[in-house]
Amino acid sequence: PSIFLFKPFAFLTSEVADTSNCPVIISGGVSSVDDIKKAKGLNKNIEGIIVGKAIYDGDIKLEELVKEIDA
User: Fold this and answer.
1) Helix (H) or strand (E) holding 48
2) How many Cβ atoms from other residues are within 10 Å of residue 35's Cβ?
């Protein structure tokens, strides 16, 4: 499995976004809709999340993802 984003990497991703003051896109390690919910609140400079394998593997259902995006 991939390294999960919301272990030590959430803090680091937020730090990069703060330090660089540039838009950051999270890629890799997102394994659930809960991870996406957590990412939405991390930092204003985090502008996107690439979700691939979790959808392909069925860990995230598109219907759930759409509901979270609209929230």
Assistant:
1) strand 46-50
2) 21
Stated as kind and residue range, the H or E segment containing 25 is strand 24-27
Give the β-pairing of 46-50 and 24-27.
parallel
Query: What are the average pLDDT values for consecutive 10-residue runs of the chain, which has 71 residues?
Result: 51 82 82 83 83 88 86 68
Decide: residue 8, CB within 10 A, 0-12 exposed, 13-18 middle, 19+ buried.
exposed
One-letter identity of residue 28? G
Structure pTM?
Answer: 0.71
CA distance 6 to 44: 17
